[in-house]
Write a structure and sequence with these properties.
The chain has 141 residues and is mostly beta strands. It contains 1 helix and 12 strands.
């Protein structure tokens, strides 16, 4: 390719994220797919209030760029961390985690993942509802 390729927003279809890997209504908009020698994909993910991923890991790192609203990311056995527009979370390979919207808040991020094939993500169980409700509120102060 000898020039910049522009994919208009109108040319991309938004799809519902699979219920087998997400809780609540989550929309995905594929922005970029790997084209050799690149291994990077980029997906705009929009979470309605209370929506979230299941616990999961990636074989390669994941970079989450928060673009709208208020969300969170949580690593297994650690407290959650709040994400707001402009925040960037870098998730190392193999780390068990989940991310999504806080209760009562819309949240969107762009997920950049360096893929090493179709099985880059290992999906696990949903985040327990009681556990989510206990942590999915903005801290006071």
């Amino acid at each position: 390719m000898d020039d910049v390729m522009i994919r208009s927003a109108a040319s991309r279809s938004t799809k519902a994220a699979p219920a087998s890997s997400f809780t609540g209504t989550v929309l995905q908009d594929s922005m970029a797919t790997p084209q050799a020698p690149s291994r990077t994909s980029a997906t705009l993910v929009t979470f309605t209030p209370g929506a979230r991923t299941n616990w999961h890991t990636h074989k390669t790192r994941q970079v989450l760029v928060a673009t709208q609203g208020t969300g969170m990311v949580q690593v297994k056995d650690k407290p959650p961390q709040v994400l707001r527009a402009g925040d960037v979370a870098v998730v190392p390979p193999g780390l068990v985690h989940w991310h999504g919207a806080l209760a009562g808040h819309l949240f969107a991020h762009i997920s950049f993942v360096e893929t090493d094939g179709p099985d880059n993500t290992t999906w696990m169980q949903p985040v327990d509802e009681a556990d989510y409700q206990a942590v999915a509120v903005l801290p006071k102060g």
